[in-house]
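Lab notebook, bench 4. The sequencing result for the construct came back, and we need a structural model before the next group meeting so we can plan mutations. Quick request posted to the team channel:

Model the 3D structure of this chain.
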Amino acid sequence: MPLVVMVVGIVGIVPVIVCGLGAIGPSTGAADMLAALIGYCAVVLSFLGGMQWGFALRPVEAGGHAQPWRLVLGVVPPLAGWVALLVALVLWSWLSLLLLAAGFIATVVTEYRWAQHGMGVPGGYLWLRWGLTAVIVAMLVTVLTLRLLGVTVVVV
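Done. Here's the predicted structure in token form:
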């Protein structure tokens, strides 16, 4: 895995950490930080769906055929992110956090299963995905748990 891929991936989770910490803080901006966390995670989840399109279309470059079922499954993460955004707007942010965490787990497990069957996931990619997913899901679950319990954390 090229170093630039790892660095960009790690930098990409900085907003998750910053917004997550802000969402559990005692400040009046905690609700805004929660909205920013949900929005950013929905965008990242959509990106993961786009990655599946890239994997599905790679055989076309080699003169083969696209994997249509993978193209269809590539639409699921953006739809899940969109539903999470809607849920946060009209129902409960806790449900949105839960949906996002489930979406991240489902995408990495799906990619892992495809890799087990030799379906074109680049070497080293899954290690990065598992690591980044673990951090994102841990932050979403932490925010969810602390907000449900009514606990605020002072981050210095």
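Residues 30-61 form the longest helix (32 residues).
Will bring this to the meeting.
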